Description:
Two copies of one chain form a homodimer.
Chain A: H1 5-18, E1 20-22, H2 23-31, H3 42-54, E2 58-60, E3 73-76, H4 78-89, H5 100-106, H6 113-143, H7 147-185
Antiparallel strand pairs in A: 1-3, 2-3
Chain A binds a DNA duplex through residues 3-7, 22-24, 40-47, 50, 69-72, 96.
Amino acid sequence: MAKSSKSQFAILGMLAILKKSSGYDLKKHMESSTQYFWKETFSSIYPVLEDLEKQKLIVKVKKPTQNDRKRNIYKLTPEGHNTLKNWLIQPPEDMQLRNELLLKLFFGAIVPIEVSIEHLKKQKKELKNKLSTYQKIKNKLSENHSLESLYSLITLDHGIRHILTSIEWCDNAIKELKSAEQQTIK
Amino acid sequence: MAKSSKSQFAILGMLAILKKSSGYDLKKHMESSTQYFWKETFSSIYPVLEDLEKQKLIVKVKKPTQNDRKRNIYKLTPEGHNTLKNWLIQPPEDMQLRNELLLKLFFGAIVPIEVSIEHLKKQKKELKNKLSTYQKIKNKLSENHSLESLYSLITLDHGIRHILTSIEWCDNAIKELKSAEQQTIK
DNA sequence: AAGATCATGTAAATCGTTACATGATTGT
DNA sequence: ACAATCATGTAACGATTTACATGATCTT
């Protein structure tokens, strides 16, 4: 029934950073921070929280104020902290990735060149939008000088650098394809 | 029973490029071409091939020579070609990615800074190995001047650019963390 | 009063990976 | 003969996404 492995640690980690949180807030927080490299859905969060509680890695916090919404707020137990730390020191695994754009480009010779060019243009537009979002987040984060925000900045910087690289790659790929197109017409 | 969606098209596409192939060769081919952004296992390939055959998108090829190994060789049917083309012209979806290294770095403040630095150093080493492999493949591919190899080069170029960017990011992140380490010691 | 969003969950479908299983063929 | 690798598959498991379901609370 319960979910396991990676999702567990993501949720445990977020909970460690937020000190205490509900499943709902956990998700909202991930959306504005780890979304780019890690996301969870409610359908995984709630069962995982239940499971973590059963494992005594987290506990429900008694609400100090009574006029709070009916929601479950959790925090890590000392065992939860240890479990998280043990996971953090293990070398991360490279996770398999699938990139549909690249797959379609790889098969590009089967369809007209314009199809691939269009895919690339669309991708570039989306990347530019993402870039400006990330830049804004970076500006806000840069004001903060805690160690925690340094780690946020490092992961964000990964995103920005890769987006910039992707945009350059798109431009170059479009250029190459257009020149190939010219040659086949002649 | 059968596998579906993305895997189907990946296999259909590879089959289109190879003209005809066995499941085994399909896999070997992907290992030396699409591995970086798309891989399939035998456990998905064989059921998908069976399923594609049932859908009449591919057919078994009668072997011309008798001294061939006992293996099933498939090729696309006209319907298979159409199905593939229809998929290729649809805008690719951005697929969700999970990056465990980034997740662990994001939670970096929970463990000593050296832990994160070690993760980054290990990552950098792996990236350098990958880079030299990709460079070699690129050199070989560059000799060929077909349209098909242009598409291969474009996807490979994506890989190379992103690896270079990742290495730079690793270096920078390590630098930032070391400087933060100095400051916390003082 | 209505609509947005807060808040938590279940069930089913999908999907992919790992382990298991088997046997033929080729090269040394 | 033996090892490598060719070649095809099944079964079980693990994990995630989508759809479904419900109701409270806040805002206008």
